[in-house]
Design goal:
single chain, 258 residues, alpha/beta, four-stranded antiparallel β-sheet, 11 strands
Length: 258
């Protein structure tokens, strides 16, 4: 039997490059959406897989009290530095933990956010089921759950050793990303083999790791939410509230705890 790679693998190594890569790809186009959702929440907000604070920090800056949880210590260390720079210690708390077993009391949060494909890093069905059950536990009746999925990764073309990004990270370091994409379509897994090369002066280093994602369709994810005790409120195809269809570039599901 083939082993399914744990989706948490690789993220410690990715921490050093996460903000640099996302500044060139997703940028900040989803930030205002999460700020609006958080501002409408009835109570404290929880972000699953908060990483370096790309979403949690601007949400906290908008005046909302946020808790961010992540398994990766290097990711959280970077988020901690952002919090210190922004003097957000009274509004943004970081917790190292597992989203499959959230270490919070029942019905604590008014909104749980799962931005930018974090649930797709749960590569086994039992892991997703555990995470959804755990989210349901920490939300009260009527509490909101927002999920953002990277659209249809299993349909992406496979390729090998393609240079996808290059540029400067900070003033002194040049970075190049060479990437391989592999598909296991039977299990809806997409594996990104990453090779980052950093050059600073005469010092050149190579950093290799892989990231694995499991992608369900929107109807499949909606069905799992309903079985976990949620009612689907909306399915969106953009960050401005537009409706979802099969051609949408964004897959966002909003649900309420029944």
């Amino acid at each position: 039997m083939r082993r399914t790679r744990d989706g948490a693998e690789g993220w410690d190594d990715y921490a050093a490059f996460y903000d640099w890569e996302n500044a060139q790809t997703v940028q900040r186009r989803d930030v205002a959406f999460w700020q609006r959702l958080a501002a409408a929440a009835d109570g404290e907000v929880l972000e699953l897989g908060c990483g370096t604070g790309r979403i949690s920090v601007p949400v906290a800056k908008s005046g909302v009290t946020v808790t961010g949880i992540d398994r990766s210590a290097p990711m959280l260390a970077r988020a901690g530095r952002r919090i210190a720079r922004g003097r957000l210690g009274d509004r943004l708390r970081l917790v190292r933990g597992d989203i499959r077993l959230l270490p919070f009391r029942a019905r604590r949060f008014g909104l749980v956010m799962a931005p930018y494909g974090i649930l797709q890093s749960l590569t086994r069905e039992r892991d997703l089921a555990a995470a959804l059950a755990s989210v349901a536990r920490v939300l009260p009746k009527g509490g909101r759950f927002g999920i953002d999925l990277v659209p249809d990764l299993p349909a992406w073309d496979e390729y090998r050793d393609r240079k996808t990004l290059a540029g400067r990270m900070g003033r002194d370091t040049r970075v190049e990303l060479v990437e391989t994409v592999r598909q296991d379509r039977a299990r809806r897994l997409t594996i990104f083999d990453q090779r980052y090369t950093t050059t600073r002066g005469r010092d050149t280093r190579e950093h290799r790791f892989s990231l694995t994602f499991r992608t369900l369709t929107v109807p499949q994810m909606a069905g799992r939410l309903e079985r976990a005790g949620f009612a689907i409120e909306a399915v969106l195809g953009d960050y401005l509230g537009g409706p979802w269809d099969l051609r949408a570039e964004v897959w966002v599901l909003l649900a309420r705890r029944r």
